[in-house]
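Review this chain:
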Amino acid sequence: MPDILPGAEPFSANGGPHGVLVVHGFTGSPQSMRGLAQAFAAAGFAVELPRLPGHGTSLDDMLNTGWPDWSGAAEAAYQDLAGRCEKVVVAGLSMGGMLTVWLAARHPEIAGIVAINAIVDPPAPSFIEMMRGILDSGTAVMPAVGGDIADPGATELAYDGMPIEPLLTMVDAEQELFENLGRIACPVLIMTSPQDHVVPPGSSDVLAERVSGPVERVTLARSYHVATLDYDKDEVEARAVEFAKKVVST
């Protein structure tokens, strides 16, 4: 078992009768979502913030993982929480937002979801071809995508590289998820940073347009991609908790 980086440990909190599953992003760790998870816990929810396979340890550890591992871990954490809670809300950042949306498309019983700078809009075929070309040339890792934060006093605990093969497994899953967005009928809270240098803000527009359920939107004007650690983190936490309380009470 690889050593977990200090700060990247998963987080759990007892509470109830309702629960919240919180999911971190690609190459990140639970550190980026701990404040949000703790805010849900302080509001009385049972909370699970898992560490996705290959994350929060070493980049080498992540090279052997992919979307089936991460989605499997998210599904297992959801099932665990749903087995002991009356209603469950799911919240995620970036790829964690994609996993959140993926769960909602599979589980109509989910009470509501919070998607923060979520990845749902598949990239252009030219991007995929470029990534495959780089991989075929013998380069397994690209420069990092982590740490996109406006606040100079905040740091994301993320890898300093982006593993291409694991990324491509996520891109493959993205296309299938895109086609299933209309299945999502639960309430959706979408939070978007207009100055996101990792996920195009238009991805949030696609999500808002294609889901079937009621949509609320929040603009995080002062934050970059990792909004949960950035200048708007207090608003992220307050709005997410408010939303979760509302959807489990209906």
